[in-house]
Amino acid sequence: MNKSSDKHLYEQVADRIQELIKQKTLQIGDRLPSVRKLREQLSVSVSTVTEAYRLLEDRGLITVRPQSGYYVKAKIVSQEPNPSAPPQQASIIDTSIVSRVYANIEQPEIIKLGAAISSPELLPIATLNRIMGQVIRTYSEISHSYHSPRGCAVLRHEVAKRLMDAGCAIAPERIIITNGTTEAVHLALQAVTKPGDTVAIESPCYYGLLQILEALHLKALELPTDPREGISLEHLEAALKSSHISACAVVSNFSNPLGSCMSDRRKQDLVELVTKYNIPLIEDDIYGDLSFAGNRPKAIKAFDTEGMVLHCCSVSKTISPGLRVGWLVAEKNFVQVKKLKMVTNMMTSIVPQLTVAHFFANGGYERHLRKLRRIYQSQMEKTRLAICKYFPPQTRVTRPQGGQVLWLELPQNFDVMQFYESALEYRISIAPGIIFSPSQSYRNCMRINCGLLWSEESERALQILGALAQQQLANKILVT
Fold first, then answer.
1. What is the CATH T-level fold of the domain 9-72, as seen in this structure?
2. What residue ranges of the chain are covered by domains with CATH 1.10.10.10?
3. Residue 352: enclosing H or E segment and its boundaries?
4. Contact 256, 289 (CB under 8 A)
5. pLDDT at 480
6. pLDDT single digits (tens) 83-130
7. How far apart, in whole angstroms, are the C-alpha atoms of residue 400 and residue 407?
8. How far is CA 122 from CA 125, 198, 295, 318, in A?
9. Are 326 and 288 contacting, i.e. CB atoms less than 8 angstroms apart?
10. Which CATH architecture has domain 123-365?
11. Using alpha carbons only, what angle is made at residue 122 by residues 451 and 115, rounded to the nearest 5 degrees?
């Protein structure tokens, strides 16, 4: 550092780091040295380094992640998608196209940008395998026995403790262990509806919910949804007044596919609204633990005082989709849900339950989450940067503050199914927008997965997708 310079020392430190970023010595997502380490390297004070990092934040070059440090930030200038405007009428559901899309995703050579999955390297597989081995040795007979449909007591106790982080005070006796969130949502909907009923949903919404609604012979009423704030409460109340709605189903935190996260105020308003009209609310909170801010957002259930909310969650997006361990919190409908669980599959396998319970209890889950959140945030920043770099300039991209997916909106004349087929020729999968709507809207939209470990292959795949999108739009202009 040049102490005789006209510039303050903190400005010189900031300029030096900015130059390293410009030269790509420090790249997007790279972690900067800690304040203490940089102080030692440059022989300056802690306050000088702190001011330098604050200046770099103001310049938009770095970002701070709670309990993690400072990271090089992607310069992203894309616009976000507009709030959705679906046809507000109840639809009979046909999800046959989902099966076709997933048949292609299952091929081993496909780059899976279309499925909301994680790279195995990001999951604590070795630790879980070790715990599972201990469980089988310690509980050799119990592992092969029938157990309560509610699930084992030790896991329900650990889940109840974890729900405190989501703002919920739940007795373990009100928790039922399920085979993932999918079964939890299925049981919840089955308990509060009958065939032919209408369920109010976000739009776009997770296609897995549409599959459940179809299997239960239910109709869906799509409601406008904001990429940041979630489902429109104004449109929901209008629907509750004018239509016969039997239930409402939402993904509360970092929804799939929009990544929206309702504010506490709107969560409370939503609970008050469904309570006023005596409508059960099914909450899927599977992404709640994946907040980039570090602090887990509250669940909608946290604001429920009348037992109107059936809370569904699992570890499928955080530690293991294969263990199939989820849970359902039910109060008013507990007896009915327990009965349905018993006649559906009797119980969830005890070995995965005990494995997850031990992982929760020994602190491994929190340590894993801190790492996973940092990686997902970095991968999402890199993915958004690549989309802004390679896709048409008219492309709109969501800006989630958690989760693992991005939603892209292209010009209205874009044909996502034509794009989907073209991408498959390069062995790349995307999730076309039409599978997230019972009315098969969003034909100019797609969902991209950010859960795969970032690599040159990932960026190359996005570069190819961007070129295909550019080519399709250029051809449409020429035809016109």
1. Arc Repressor Mutant, subunit A (1.10.10)
2. 9-72
3. helix 350-361
4. no
5. 45
6. 999 988 898 899 988 888 888 777 878 999 999 999 999 999 999 999
7. 9
8. 9, 39, 21, 9
9. no
10. 3-Layer(aba) Sandwich (3.40)
11. 30
Return the higher-pLDDT residue of 234 and 43: 234
Quote the CA–CA distance of 72 and 60 in Å, as a whole number.
9
- Which pLDDT value is given to residue 336? 97
How many CB atoms within 10 Å of residue 477? 10
Q: Is the pLDDT of residue 74 over 80?
A: no
Residue 296 is given by DSSP the state: P
Where in the chain do CATH 3.40.640.10 domains reside? Answer: 123-365
CA-atom Rg of the chain in angstroms: 24
Residue 121: φ, ψ to 5°? -65, -20
Residue type, 18: Q
| pTM for the model | 0.86
DSSP secondary-structure letter at 216?
A: T
Assign 313 to helix, strand or coil: strand
List, for residues 223-258, the tens digit of each pLDDT value. Answer: 999 999 999 999 999 999 988 999 999 999 999 999
Instruction: List the structure tokens of 446.
Output: 């797609």
Beta bridge partners of 199: 220, 247
d(CA 403, CA 146): 35
Q: Six-digit token pair at 254?
A: 């970092």
18 phi and psi, to 5 degrees? -60, -40
Residue 257: predicted pLDDT: 97
Dihedral over alpha carbons 84, 87, 92, 94 (to 10 degrees) = -50
Residue ranges of E strands in 391-472 = 396-397, 405-409, 428-429, 431-432, 445-449
Which residues make up the CATH 3.90.1150.10 domain(s) of the chain? Answer: 368-479
Interatomic CA distance for residues 463 and 295, integer angstroms: 34
**Burial (CB count within 10 angstroms: exposed 0-12, middle 13-18, buried 19+), residue 68:** middle
Tokens standing for residue 92 = 């009979």
Q: Quickly count helices (H) and strands (E) in the chain.
A: 15, 17
Q: What tens digit of pLDDT does each residue of 134-151 get? A: 999 999 999 999 989 999
Q: Which CATH superfamily is domain 368-479 in?
A: Aspartate Aminotransferase, domain 1 (3.90.1150.10)
How far apart, in whole angstroms, are the C-alpha atoms of residue 37 and residue 43? 10
CA atoms within 13 A on the CB side of 212: 22
Phi-psi region of 217 (alpha: psi -120 to 50; beta: other; left: phi over 0): left
**Segment 463-479, tens digit of pLDDT:** 999 999 999 999 876 54
